[in-house]
Amino acid sequence: MKKVELLAPAGDLEKAKIAILYGANAVYVGGKKFSLRARASNFDMDDIGELTRFAKENQAKVYVTMNIVPHDEDLDGLDSYLRGLAKASVDAIIVSSPYIIEKAKQHAPELEIHLSTQQSALNSEAVRFWLEEGVSRVVLGREALIPEIAQIIETTKADVEVFIHGGMCVSYSGRCMLSNHMTTRDANRGGCAHSCRWNYDLYEEKRKRNRFGHFNIGSKDLMAIDYVPELISIGVSSLKIEGRMKSAYYIAGVVRTYRNLIDEYYEKNGAMDFSDLSKYHDEIKKTENRMFGTGFLSGEAGISSMLYDQRAEQPTKEFLGIVLDYDETSGTALIEQRNYFETNDTVEFFGPKLPNTKIKIPEMNDLEGAVVTVARHPKQLLKIKTPIQLRPYDMLRLVERSDKDLIL
Amino acid sequence: MNLVVDLPSLDDIGTLADMGIGAIICSDSHFGVRSEVTFSQDELSEIRVRTKNRKIRMMVNVNAIFHENELNGLLEYLRFLKFIDVDAVIFSDMAVYKLSQKIEITKKLVYSAETLITNSFDMNFWLDRIDSVVLSNELSLDELRMMSSQAKKDVIFMVYGYHSMFYSKRALLSNYFEYKNEPNEKIQDNRNLRIKEETRSEEYPILEDARGTHIFTGKIFCLFGELGILAETKCKQWWIRSNFLDKGKYFDIIRLYRQAIDEIRVNNFEAIKEHLMEKVIKIDSNIDTSHLYAKSVLIKGVDE
């Protein structure tokens, strides 16, 4: 039985490595050109080369997004860029333009071509069309219901990728130009201003129809923990996490949670207790304080999947730091600070191979050996002694402040 | 140059023929979306008879995005359209292309995803396979001219009307009223609804139908002043869109565009353009040129 792929996003090299170390079978990244998510710290060709080497050492794959809906001016240098990706041993590109597909077949036949969700492929005939055009995988539109996904796989035998976590367009992907017309930022070329999340009123002639304040038309984020077992059982090839602009902490936590869930599914040959996936829900809640829905995986997306007058997220400060090094002889960890913490705060270390482990922050020292009681500076380097066997890329998050402000 | 217009009613075919219209677009209520008026299959058959009699091309919107359980019905519908011998089928879902291959009508297809034909290469990808494409609404005038010059066949561009700028499967308005426990009567298929962003003055027409929610631009896109330029390109099919327009005004606009074509043919358009433009503005002053001179851009620094 071929194991389902867990596919994670990465906005930079560090996040990509973290995604792989925390259990992603593949990562997708944006290059400097042809990619949506304009601000997602896009990779240059050297970064991509380093990432593919790291990925291969860790039996993972690298996909590069080329999913803009291009204008003529965007297509300069396409052929050489494709050849560069092939030379850098990229496994696949994610594409929405038929022209880029044609050019990839011509100039970089060693690259697999994955159809982007921007094309909103939602039925077996559309999937067949793209397969015949040379695409090897189709990322289905987020509007597909699970029985429809099953039918598409059964009918076409296609390699199908499905979103399981993260932000989702409220429109059919690729069919929203709100940002273009309201701000001139091109949504299909990486400039989406998320106009769907702005505040609106509804009028009929002169009469305001909404009586209780403004509302937005944005979607809650997708969270598919309850549906992962079913998606695996119907033969989905790849489960995709959204969020190339998210933090390393988010990537680590979300990837690790779905990794553990998928592994448990296979360890138990699918005979899991689906009614109790609460431990995975609890873990996801630690990664980001956003409102989640199940999109179209639980049926037609209704009011429970919409934000309307609710805020999508509250700022969180649970992520405290990342381990850069650990000296086994002295039991000393070198930690890079990411959010404020103090001596005696209760924290939880976790990592790719480290189960959640709680400690109270002991005495901390800076690199000169001076005692530090408050880690208040971003990227501040601190040494702490701990008996826990830590490794680079392990992380720590807040459980309880020393003044008993309960977080988890 | 040919005008392509939305058909308001069966009885308007004669009037439109007298106005020298080249093609009409019509739609049923299930397989087509965003049409102001829809027709039954019997009516579509009758439209075919009447348009043939008056030598007008009949184009049918089959432009929804389709889900798996709709494919059998879609194939049957395409067979029906082939049987009544429509001239063109406008589509945005590749399922329509694949099913059209089965019944050998791909040469009648026109691709119109509204947002996705933004470069000459993707345009010609489709023109190698089908009859025509509708260019995206968000092009600059330079891009429009350049793409038209590269086109392997005639292409279609919207020259007047409200742009569609959003297509969601979700019933966004009905769900909102349900969420607030408010009565939601007269929401679906109500063409008088507008949404307004809190910091902007513009109101955007919003339409919820059985297939989801559609939002349109706040202003009417009007390319009247540029028709002389367009006439020199391969973009010779000019679509005047009827969404949210009063029928009387819609016909007045069609007449003015018809007159423009006649004037272009005798090299007199530029001489009277300003005079005609005044008439266009008098019919409805809520017009702009969208991205023709305000190009959409790749922006660094997006919030998220």
Could you walk me through the main structural features you see in this protein, from its secondary elements to its overall organization?
- The complex is a heterodimer of chains A (408) and B (304).
- With 408 residues, chain A is of the alpha/beta class.
- Chain A has two domains: 5-191 and 217-305, TIM Barrel (Alpha-Beta Barrel); 319-400, Beta Barrel (Elongation Factor Tu (Ef-tu), domain 3), CATH 2.40.30.
- Helices cover 25% and strands 23% of the residues of chain A.
- Chain A has an eight-stranded parallel beta barrel, surrounded by five helices.
- The model of chain A has no long low-confidence stretch (mean pLDDT 91).
- Chain B is of the alpha/beta class and 304 residues long.
- Chain B is 35% helix and 22% strand.
- Chain B contains ten helices and twelve strands.
- In chain B, strands 1, 2, 3, 4, 5, 6, 7, 8, 9, 10, 11 and 12 form a twelve-stranded mixed sheet that branches.
- In chain B, strand 5 (109-111), helix 5 (120-127) and strand 6 form a beta-alpha-beta unit.
- The longest helix of chain B is centred in the last third of the chain and has 19 residues, at 247-265.
- Chain B is globular, with a radius of gyration of 19 Å.
- The interface between A and B is large, with 81 and 74 residues.
- Strand 8 (200-204) of chain A pairs antiparallel with strand 8 (193-197) of chain B.
Short summary:
Chain A has 408 residues and is of the alpha/beta class. Chain A is 25% helix and 23% strand.
Main sheet characteristics of chain A: 8 strands, parallel, barrel
Number of DSSP-assigned strands of chain B: 12
Shape of chain A: globular
Distance linking N and C termini of chain A: 37 Å
Which chain pair has the greatest contact? Answer: A-B, 81 and 74 residues
Q: How many independent structural domains of chain A?
A: 2
Strand content of chain A: 15-25%
CATH topology of the largest domain in chain A: TIM Barrel
Oligomer: heterodimer
Widest sheet: strand ordering of chain A = 1-2-3-4-5-6-7-11
Largest sheet of chain B: 12 strands, mixed
- Note poorly predicted spans of chain B: 299-304
